[in-house]
Write a structure and sequence with these properties.
It is built from five helices and six strands; from the N terminus they run E-E-H-E-H-E-H-H-E-H-E. By secondary structure, the chain is of the alpha/beta class. Strands 3-4-5-6 form a four-stranded parallel beta sheet. It has a two-stranded antiparallel ribbon with strand order 1-2. Helix 2 runs parallel beside helix 4. The longest helix is centred in the middle third of the chain and has 14 residues. The protein starts with a strand and ends with a strand.
Length: 129
């Protein structure tokens, strides 16, 4: 469920959908058809995916590590660096973003913080594996 928001601008009325990214993702997952989720690694690739008409996008640890550091996904990227990248990506598009968050960057307390940070950044979902 979402709350509509009325926005007035130069004699025009717009109804803005305030559904969160996670709510949009849940709605998409409830559909019976298969969902194609392309991978993105920066704001430009995410915008291209959105412009191509996809309903959702996802990041990969390799994509972010390779585009940020030029290295493979072998733990070189810190949680801070990952969230900096995926946060910018999420804010640059109007479709849900699922982010690869490795194993949560540490112990159970780190996983709890990873989930909290992901929610605050507006991510629709995360992958912990």
């Amino acid at each position: 469920m979402f709350l509509p928001y009325l926005l007035y601008s130069q004699n025009s009325l717009f109804i803005v959908n305030l559904m969160t990214a996670s709510q949009k993702l849940c709605e998409l997952l409830a559909r019976p058809e298969i969902i194609v989720i392309p991978g993105v690694y920066d704001c430009l690739s995410a915008k291209l995916v959105e412009k191509a008409g996809f309903d959702v996008a996802a990041t990969s640890g390799f994509g972010i590590a390779a585009s940020t550091l030029g290295l493979p996904d072998h733990g070189f990227l810190t949680a801070t660096e990952m969230f900096y990248s995926v946060g910018r990506i999420a804010q640059s598009i109007n479709i849900p973003l699922i982010a690869d968050c490795d194993t949560g960057y540490g112990n159970a307390l780190n996983v709890m913080r990873t989930v909290k940070d992901a929610v605050q950044l507006g991510l629709a979902g995360i992958i912990l594996a």
